[in-house]
Amino acid sequence: MTQASEVAVAMDWGGTWIRVGVLDRDGKILWQDRVGHARGTGKDELLGLAEGLLREAIDWCGSRTVMGVGIAIAGPVDSETGTLYQPPNLYVLDGVSLKSLWETSLGYPVLVGNDANLAALGEFYLGAGREAAKAGTPPRTLVYLTISTGIGGGVIERGEMFLGAHGLAAEIGHMCIDASDSAPECQCGARGCLESMASGTAIPSITKERIARGDFPASSLATESDTLTSATVLQAAGRGDPLAVSVLDGVVFALSVGLTNVLHLYNPDLVVLGGGVTLGLVELDMLPRIGEMIKGRAMSEFHKEFRLVASHLGDDPGMVGAATLVWQNAQAGG
Ligand SMILES: [Zn+2]
Ligand 1 centroid to 256 CA: how many Å? Predict the structure, then answer.
């Protein structure tokens, strides 16, 4: 059997969609499908949907050699047992070990990880990290931040995920940026978390609050208060709308403070930003500004030796990362 015929089956399981793909060693998606699930779907039905999709993928593989099944899931997960802990968007799966469940039913090695941690792993080996390596500067420590509905993160230290004692490390979205009583409330119950100040949920919410307060009454956004999204706010900033520019300034400030803290914690040489909000920031050419603001706060010259880039894996970082876990396991003889 040649390496060329070896494939990984990978799943990215979020709060709304279950996506499954078959990937080659290069991270290329050879086949994929997805299924939506409504909030309130029961545990057995949900697990049945997911397993059905995996079986479809395995059937598609035909004579190719399936090296394992990698699962990226939105929520805290024990990397050794594959047990989920109170995943906020998939709560019925609390305490379920997808690893033992599917290793028994499917007969392949099953590796499970948190989606943001795995996105970081995918970026290291097959995304921004690979691009940097091609350019002669392979990363040693990579920090990945996804800025979308929420903010998640992952840290890769010399090719390995930094997981923490319970697999809950790198919750960068819940780093405190503003400890004051007036800071915006976060989903986690605290105030002033990075997620409550710079996420795709925070951007329209902060804008609406400022419209209600009467800030910049001439802003074109004042008449669209009910339909605002992070994309419409960022687009308005691109047109020079003063309220949107002011909100964007706050987002850029929060991200640069948060990333400076990250820099001081992990000393990364590559910082990768992904998620829908990042696309908007790239369009406005904000990454160089964020990079400069971080460097302005960094405590040493060595901390300033990092590159800040956008994700290279587009919509699929979790799936590519889950496949990477399969290749790592195969290499380790698992
Ligand atoms: Zn929080």
Answer: 17
Domains and CATH numbers, the chain: 3-115 (3.30.420.40), 128-310 (3.30.420.40)
Cβ contacts of residue 150 below 8 Å, gap of 6+?
173, 187, 195, 199, 200, 201
SS3 category, 239:
coil
Q: Is 138 helix (H, G, I), strand (E, B) or coil?
A: coil
- CA–CA separation, 136 vs 157, rounded Å? 18
Measured in Å, residue 78 CA sits from the centre of ligand 1 at: 21
Three-state secondary-structure class, residue 180: coil
Cα 80 to Cα 34, 66, 163, 165: the distances in Å are 26, 21, 11, 11
Quick one: what percent of the chain has pLDDT higher than 70?
99
Mean pLDDT of the chain: 94
